[in-house]
Amino acid sequence: MRALLSVSDKTGIVDFAAALQSLGIALVSTGGTAALLAAHGLAVTQVAQLTGFPEMLDGRVKTLHPGVHAALLARRDMPAHMQALTSQGIGLIDLLVVNLYPFEATVARSGCTLEEAVEKIDIGGPAMVRSAAKNWRDVAVLTDASQYGPVLEELRRDGVVGESTRFALAVAAFNRISQYDGAISDYLSAIGPDGKHAKFPAQANGRFVKLQDLRYGENPHQQAAYYRDLVPAPGSLASAVQLQGKELSFNNIADADAAWECVKSFSAPACVIVKHANPCGVAESESALQAYSRALQTDPTSAFGGIIAFNCPVDGAAAQAIGRQFVEVLMAPAFSYEALAVFKDKANVRLLRLALPAGGASAWEQGRNDMDVKRVGSGLLMQSADNYQVTAADLKCVTIQQPTASQRADLLFAWKVAKYVKSNAIVFGADGRTLGVGAGQMSRLDSARIATIKAQHAGLSLADSVVASDAFFPFRDGLDAVVDAGACCVIQPGGSMRDEEVIAAADARGVAMVFTGIRHFRH
User: Fold this and answer.
1) What is the pLDDT of residue 357?
2) Which of 54, 188, 241, 402 could serve as a FRET partner for 277 with CA atoms 20 to 30 Å apart?
3) Cα distance between the two ends of the chain
4) Which residues pair with residue 56 across a beta bridge?
């Protein structure tokens, strides 16, 4: 047997090559890889000796030769192929180890130039990988260091790499080539005539890895699967660890994402309860138990069968309280031993543990998407993700009445919640908790009425509450509705043609109103 090794990332390659050689497998290699192996005392044949042709053009051409590709592509079960190799003095290559030039890492680096990017476009590597993967019945192709161990184990046990393993390696190889070419296409097609990079490339190439098939989609007659980014962001839902419970459903995953994105926007211990993609109760407090209890009070009816997310560890006391209701998914950065014991006998409850990263320099480092994508008929809508975080410095009071410091804190709290409520969104809040949530109505006035009704049904007073509206009030009727319900402060983006009319109405009603200048539609 003979193996050809040519790797850019040399992690583990020396040990792997040494193990191959100990099994009697001859080693062939290129440039830097060959030098590394020889420096560690391994017997290795340079590719140039194999092809009879020297590397040239600064290494751009070294393996693009029949002596390599015929050795990879020849079918052992076809006498004509074997005879052709013999007539040309070409030996077989049974195992190929290649990882590609680091194009993705290069273009991700700040200040990367087009020239630097182009030099990291691998040519010979993908060509060899394709040849070996096409001939998977006879050749094993490895494209990642994580494959070294399992292949070695199989070689030691059976003396060969089995057919099923060779096929799986070939699939992984073609996937890697697809990912690589997609990254190159994304990068190059985003370069405009002026040489600058556009936010959106001329061709978008999705590259996702399937995590699991789902029992069904949004409805039982729909099929579904769950995919993640090639490298999921730390703290994102795709990086969650399921500790117990049934498999997640399509709706579980969608709702869990909404809950997790909302709860991690708070710094104090917080609980978010989501039902059908909308927060139905949110609260901050001093402990997980208090946050949960206060969030539940907003809408205990809707919370039945909901998704619950915490941005703090869940302890035994909180678990005991949550265990008294029907919950589909419970998410947190950690669960105490006592909390896990509470749910041990509740086998259907899905417990998810997610890392809660420290505030990073980018949304990605905080586990948030950079881009949002929505499928439409024969197309995609792509946009930069809504990662804007409104702070106290963004607030502009536009009324005579000024909010107090505590009211400003409640306005920011309600605003954070409204961002994650389906439009049109109206959120009543006070003292770091929601009191009533109106979501997804065609009329903002109706959302205000629904939020009021929800609070009434929950037995919660809206007197002296604050209200957040995800978009401006187009008329004063919406403002009047929330003030009539008891609101004393309002936060909204502003930007309506009738802003002056709404501001005048707020002054006439003696309430404070602040503008954020940021709209948070959510469809």
Assistant:
1) 73
2) 241
3) 58
4) 61
Element at 133 (helix H, strand E): helix 124-134
Helix (H, G, I), strand (E, B), or coil: what is residue 136? coil
Catalytic residue among 10, 81, 120, 134: 134
Please give the backbone phi and psi of residue 514, each rounded to the nearest 5 degrees, phi first.
Answer: -120, 145
Q: Encode pLDDT of 223-259 as tens digits.
A: 999 999 988 888 899 999 999 999 999 999 999 999 9
305's tokens: 């069968």
Numbers of helices and strands, H then E, in the chain: 19, 21
pLDDT reported for residue 355: 87
- Give catalytic status of residue 120 as yes or no: no
Cα angle 66, 71, 74; round to 5: 105
264 included as an active-site residue: no
3-state secondary structure 295-328: HHHHCHHHHCCEEEEECCCECHHHHHHHCCCCEE
How many Cβ atoms sit within 10 Å of the Cβ of residue 105? 12
- 129-165 CB burial, b ≥16 within 10 A, e <16: bbbbbebbebbbbbbbbebbeebbebbeeeeebeeeb
Catalytic residue among 10, 120, 197, 276: 276
Q: How far apart are CA 353 and CA 444, in angstroms?
A: 36
Q: Which residue has the tokens 């999921």?
A: 232
Output the pLDDT for position 112.
Answer: 87
Pairing between β-strand 371-376 and β-strand 379-384 as defined by DSSP bridges: antiparallel
pLDDT in the model for residue 514: 97
DSSP string spanning 18-74? HHHHHTT-EEEE-HHHHHHHHHTT--EEEHHHHHT---BTTTTBSS-SHHHHHHHH-
180, 230, 262, 284, 312 from 334: Cα distances, Å: 36, 25, 17, 17, 7
Q: Which two tokens stand for residue 198?
A: 């556009």
Query: What is the Cα–Cα distance from 225 to 223, expressed in whole angstroms?
Result: 7
Question: What is the phi/psi pair of residue 32, to 5°?
Answer: -65, -35
DSSP type of residue 243? E
CA atoms within 13 A on the CB side of 502: 26
**pLDDT tens track for 260-276:** 999 999 999 999 999 99
Using CA atoms in the order 388, 428, 307, 366, what is the torsion angle rounded to 10 degrees? 20
Q: Which two tokens stand for residue 255?
A: 């709702």
Cα–Cα dist 129/177, whole Å: 8
